[in-house]
Amino acid sequence: MHSCHPLPIEVTNYGEKQVITPVLLSNGHERILVDCGYPGFIPQLRQALLKEGFELESITHIIATHHDMDHIGSLAALKRMLPGATLIAHEIEAPYLDGSRKSQRLEQAESTLHLLPQEAITGAKQFMELLASIEPASVDQKVRHGDILPWCGGIEIIHTPGHMAGHISLYLRDSQTLIAGDAVVVEDGELDIANPQYALDLEEAVASVRRLMSYEIETLICYHGGRFQGDIRGALDKLVKRY
C-alpha cells in the first residue's frame, strides 16, 4: 500500500499569511518527505504529519525539489534529528545544498541590490543575511531527469529548471500524481509561474511547464497553492500561452 499526503501549513512571512505544502509519501515502511519548509519549521512539520497519522521520526527519505529557503530551511536540522534519513536532490542542486556553492537566490539578490530604491535596501540586506545563514546539508543520492525512485509504483524525476537550475518535479506513475514543487503555483484558482519576476530563467521555466504537459496528470500538488482543482491540462496550456 502506498499513499500521498499533502501537508498544508500556514505561515506568516514578512507580515503576510501564506500556505506552503510539503508532501509525505508513504510506501510500506518507507516515509518520503518532499520539501520541509522554512528555518525552525520542525514543530509545524511534526504537527502536520500527526494530523495525517504519521510521526516525524518515521521519515526515511527527504526529497528537496530545489534550494530555496522555504523548501529547505529546516533540512539540516531534520538530518541531524533523522541521521538515517536519505537526502535526495538533483545533481545540479547538490553543491548548493551542501554549501560548496553559493545559493543561486543569494547571488541573484546580490546582483540586483544596486537596482533597488534606497528604502528597500535594508530589507533586502536582511533577506540576504537570512539566505546566507541557511545551514548546508549533504546530499546522499543525486538524481537526474528520467530517474525512477522505487516507491509508490515508481516516482519519476522530472527536471523542471527555470525557477532554479536544478529544480525537479515528481511524477507518481501509479496514481498519475504530479508534485510540482515551484514549477507551477496556484494563484486565485489558476496556475501560474512561481514569482516569474524572480525566476532565474523565465523562458526555461515556461519550457518546463511544456514538459509537464506531456504527462497524464490526474492530481496536481503545488507547493504554493496545494492541490489544484480543475482541468489540469487546460490550465497548463493556458499558462504557457500567457507567457
TrEMBL record:
GO terms for molecular function: hydrolase activity. Keywords: Hydrolase. It catalyses: 3',5'-cyclic CMP + H2O = CMP + H(+); 3',5'-cyclic UMP + H2O = UMP + H(+). Gene3D superfamilies: Ribonuclease Z/Hydroxyacylglutathione hydrolase-like. SMART domains: Lactamase_B. Residues 19-224 form the Metallo-beta-lactamase domain. It comes from the Bacteria. Counteracts the endogenous Pycsar antiviral defense system. Phosphodiesterase that enables metal-dependent hydrolysis of host cyclic nucleotide Pycsar defense signals such as cCMP and cUMP. This is MBL fold metallo-hydrolase. It comes from Cohnella thailandensis.
